[in-house]
Amino acid sequence: MRLSIMLAGGGGMRVSDMVSLAVRAEVAGADGVYMPEAWRSGFVTLSAIAVATSRLSLGPYVLNAHARTPMIAGMSAVDLDELSGGRLVLGVGSGNRVTNESYQGVPVIRPLEKMRDYLAVLRGVVEARYGQRVDYVGARHSMSGWHPQVSPVRSRIPILLAATSPKMAQVAYERADGLALGSLLTREYVAQARAEGQRAAGESFTVTAASFVSVDDDRERARNAARSAVVNLYAGKPHPHYDSLLRQQGFADVADAVGEAVEAGDLAAARSAVSDSVVDRLTIAGTREDCLARLEDYSDLADELILVNVNTMRYQAGDHAVGAAATGTQDSFSPLLGLIEEASSRR
């Protein structure tokens, strides 16, 4: 299993800070560095990282299909893959409804239909050779008469689709190379996703997952930081798909309690509502040895696990974040990079 890190771009980090972290991750033995298209753009920082590194895979995890046309996304992907020497992994998703409708004013209409067409056009753009013509007629996206002015450096850029529902997963089986799963996933959830994907699309179909990671010599402090990270999914910008994931995996009572406490403005109660079982099964939290053992839980299931530093999730859900902010976001990555270094040495 490949081990990578997520650079969320929050915490006041500048592009130079994220490039520095990516270089440190490469030295530590990480396999890749990814960025959500959230607080920062999906391609600019990754381009700087591509120039500063030589081995890491990199890409948006995931770019928002409601924010970029498939033509622009495809051309950007071809450019970044060229710049990085063929290291791009292109994660795509339909985006968060709050981001799309409240922040961008873009309505979410028939997302399954949209993503099916989007991936078809995107695939056409990233695979077209110089002089070829790309045509596609779809209900939501079409392309007619487009000719690329450069051939891509690879015949196929891996495209992963974010999917939290069986119907969106089916789109991934039909049009993508793999699934881009979010965080808060049990071993059983990832195992089922892998089995269904490979049964539907073949053994080459991949599963990438992200996981909230909190490493600390003080086990309880690490676990409390993980609880705050879960609450942040409710207390900051709402993420309905994570609420759905909790319910799908048997934690509806936790989702109800956290949601009610956040709505009432009681973040302490919200953190208390995140059960030990959620921390144990849906996050990677504890001492370094605890976390190394948890990584092993996914080693035979996920092709790649992207580690998300909980200390960069700083809306207002935890006092631990104040200390992390004081010492600097970059410093907060040191335990996570140490975890990767130790895991890499044991391979």
Describe the structure.
By secondary structure, the protein is an alpha/beta fold. The protein has one domain (2-219, 281-315, 324-345): Luciferase-like domain (TIM Barrel, Alpha-Beta Barrel). 50% of the residues lie in helices and 15% in strands. The protein has helices at 15-28, 44-52, 70-84, 97-103, 111-127, 166-175, 187-201, 219-235, 240-248, 252-263, 267-273, 276-282, 288-298, 320-327, 329-332, 334-345; strands at residues 2-6, 32-35, 57-60, 63-64, 90-93, 134-136, 143-146, 159-162, 178-180, 206-215, 284-286, 304-309. The strands form 2 sheets. Strands 1, 2, 3, 4, 5, 8, 9, 10, 11 and 12 form a 10-stranded parallel beta sheet that branches. The chain has a two-stranded antiparallel ribbon with strand order 6-7. It is globular, with a radius of gyration of 20 Å. Mean pLDDT is 92; it is low at 315-327.
Mean pLDDT: 92
> What structural category characterises the helix and strand content?
alpha/beta
CATH topology: TIM Barrel
How many domains would you count in the coordinates? 1
State the order of secondary-structure elements, H for helix, E for strand.
EHEHEEHEHHEEEHEHEHHHHHEHEHHH
Task: Please state roughly what percent of the residues sit in beta strands, choosing from under 5%, 5-15%, 15-25%, 25-35%, 35-45% or over 45%.
Answer: 5-15%
CATH class: Alpha Beta
Q: What is the straight-line distance between the termini?
A: 10 Å
Low-pLDDT windows of residues: 315-327
Defining key terms:
347 residues, alpha/beta, TIM Barrel, ten-stranded parallel beta sheet, two-stranded antiparallel ribbon, 16 helices, 12 strands, 50% helix
